[in-house]
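User: Modeling request: complex.
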Amino acid sequence: MGNVLRPDEWEVPICYEALGARGISLGHGGLVALPEGTDFAAVARDWLAFMADESCGKCTPCRVGSRKAVELARRGERTALLELLDVVAQTSLCPFGQSIPGPVRTLLEMAR
Amino acid sequence: VSRPRAEIDGRALEPLPDDTILAAARRLGISIPTLCHLPRLAPDGGCRLCLVEVDGRERPAASCHTPLRDGMRVRTSTPRLARLRAGVRSLTDEGRPTEPAQTDHPYLRLDPSRCVLCRRCLHVCEEIQGAFVFSVVGRGAEARLALGSDDRFATSPCTSCGRCAEVCPTGALADRDGVAAAGGRATRSTCGYCGVGCQVEIESDARGVRRIGGAHDAAVNHGQLCAKGRYAHGWRSSPERLTRPLLRVDGRLEPIAWPDAIEFAARRLGEIRAAHGPNALAALSSSRSTNEAAYLLQKLFRSRLGTNNVDCCARVCHSSTAEALRAVTGLGAASACYDDIELARVIVVVGANPSEAHPVLGARILQAVRRGARLCVIDPRRIELAERADVFLQLRPGSNVALLNGLAALLIARGDFDSGYLAQRCSGFGELAASLPMAEIERAVELTGVPLDALRAAAALIAAGPTLFVSGLGTSELTQGTASVHALCNLALLSGSIGRSGAGLLPLRGQNNVQGNADMGASPDHFTGYQPLGAADVRARLGELWGGALPPTIPGQRLPELLESARQGSLRALWIQGEDLAQSEPDQTRVLEALGRLELVVVQELFPSRTTDFADLVLPAAGWLEQDGTFTNAERRIQRVRAAVRPLGEARPDWEVIRDVANALGCGWRHPTPERVMDEIALAAPELFGGVSYLRLAGDGLQWPCPDAEHPGTARLHEGGFARGRAPLSRVAFAPSPESEANGFPYRLITGRTLHQYNVGSMTRRTPARELAPGDLLEIHPDDAAREGLATGALVSVESRWGSTQLQARLSERVAPGTLFASFHYPESHTNRLVGRAPVSRGALHLAWSVVPAAAAGTSVAHATTHGGSAMNVASLVQRQVQSLAPTASCQDAARKMRDTGVGSLVVAEADRPLGVVTDRDLVLRVLARGLDPAIVPVREAMSRMPIYVSHRREVSEVLELMREHAVRRVPVVDDDQALIGVVALDDVILALSAGLAAVADTIRKEM
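Assistant: Request completed. Predicted assembly structure:
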């Protein structure tokens, strides 16, 4: 699903091995640069909406949690959202549900 | 040798092959919460509640699908797990849709607002029943459970097995009984419908049976049931049940006390025996009743009354199979067991439709095929299993022997036979090979209509065996029944299948205790346990056990011969246990005549039937939910039946009544319980049952032979060889059905059972199953229908050279052009009027007879069911296609009219004013049985003694009272001008008044 890299993390070769060594997943290989002044909370909401769209629905945490996360993010219930993202990341059946919460948490931190 | 061990919560254990953490934890008694998990099914893994921590893993693992490996250290209970499980649980609860509930089904309903998408229903439906009703549509949060293609049970492939409702953890899927059940006492017993012998758990309380579920630890069904076993128990408290003994006085059945009933039966049997000898008496034991009842009935007639005139309804269906199997293998029973289905590499299903008639086994066969077993289906009808078959041979009805001979010829021609097995265990190969030249293959193609390629493919499958041959009445209940089974045995021997694991012969039994009835000696030509009538040691043993008197060594008469003797007057008394001869026997007209001539007819029954109409004494019987005893299923497994509720009213178990009649005849039988009867059976036939006792029958029962107390029972027969030495291969010549010679009948008709009904339907028609299968249907191929100008729903008059009736048509490509299929569950269909007798095994020719269909004059539905709401007048129940005739017409005219129109009763009317009703039974009882000439006697003389008629405005409940008062089953209905508009039948009145029928009426009204 990818990761969010802050400027201080940019000094790294763009390849699976090097990124993997730092615990970063290259995902589909696409890079998106976000300019200064970006509304990171909005990006996080967008990612969560993407997650809710893409969830296959097989396991409960990802199926129900993804939609609930969107609602919590819209309402700005940050603590509840972080708790939920932890449950989704820890308990989802496949790497999709397991990996989305990570970058969203980073974005939420950046949005503070 | 010490192996590295796994550890769960600090407790060490050795992983088993294919072990999961969950399974291992449960073995240790450690409880892990689960939601989607079901034992014995593939893990789903979606609910995420069974999470555990595994050392060295960052995330928790789902224990249901994580294999337990050597060296693993697992913790099932930590604060983190508790927090995560709580989080998942709250998500589970939140993710429910809000659609309205589905309530279009008599048993099942879906309430999506309770669904947590655990998919348990989906898994049991796929992996156990094989019906594939459920799916999940939509993605992510939009995902929801879908039912069929339009979210309705009625249009889905649902078979109403009810397992989904049983496993649903939230009640989103629920069933009628689950909703109503309030716990109650649980009783383990054996289902009383078909011969599969499923183990049931019956929940009951003071109000009666509340709910029936499958016994999960049962070897036969592993918790699975079919719609009939699970739901069709409403007959037990039907208002129509016989609840008091009835004696015929002046032509009417009047209640009497039990002691008087017992005394009457004993006295009349004794008198008739004294006047006309033992062979003026006969007994028919019931395949629905217990082993204990069958044993005591044959013992009473053989020992005290001295006749071998004992038979049972298996004569109609199963006797050809038993005879052929005994001739070939020495034992007239299945060589294989149900577990062979899962072990089989190749399964041949021939002349059986287990998906509808034996649903739990049908599902097991389907699942075996899904897991890779090869399947060949041989049937004139494209049954459900045919859709899953590697090879489907759609033969012409009645051409079984030609087909099986053709397959044998192919095996021989290709050298595809098990020569080692044949050399060691069989005889007659040379003669068989000589009788099956290559020309036999071409002949098979010509006679069966099956293409050569398909025959070759089937032969190749069988050759890849050993093969499990699952057969049904399509092989046995027809003219060449015995020959068909011999031809099937040839294939089983050529392929080396009998006595091998995952192979052999598995004939399915139609009724719960067909097997047990034959085992107990309900047959004119052998004693209990198939012991010969003439064997000195057997006679010595039974003579001692039975207190002296024994019947002659000459066999008694079989059922068809008994009926003929009754017609001719030499048989005078018949004890009929739980069988509606008048409806289920072929050649119905002659059966009615036979019954009408008997001096004494004693009937043990649950319900009034066409047969009790002929009874002098009716003894109300306890049904399978109400008595203790045993049934023996199709794999020879003797299982316990236990009373869950008391018999209704004064009804009593069959065995107990027979004991009392015997004692009234001076027998001095001391059997306080059926358990003591079984102890005696063990002594009577020690080779098969010597080790059988109720103590040992707890749980899964015992499969006979079980000769002594240490013997574990026998799952598979003939494993070490055939008891009688070599099994003979038989030369079997194809003979065309005599029906094929009848000119002017272009169609062949086959009959069979449908999923929701059971045989003559005396039980299932009294349950909501009626809603799922509201009447008998005639399946006809669309090409034939087009030629005859018929549409689905048209009323068709069907005529054979044996008789005629009317059935509703359903266009279907399940039958081939030229073949018709009809079910026979409803008495008003009179399907058996169309069917004649088979000469060889003297069974019935239920399959393959010639008929001519034609659209009936006026295609209004005869059984016009436009039942209204609660306050109904009788107009809505009127059968309008009433036939009437003048009082001066002769009885012969009446009989002709009945035959031509296919109705069983006529209104006698003068200038449209009804004077009375005459039924086919009246003609028999009041004319033929008295030796009067029907051509001379006017119908006025034979019609109902107390002619009444009612206005179409009368309330239905009042009409019922009138019918009771006048003891009539049909009443003419007139309009405001007193002109005849039709008749109303008792069955319809009672149905209309029964609870729950309003819903049926609603459905029907909407569709009309």
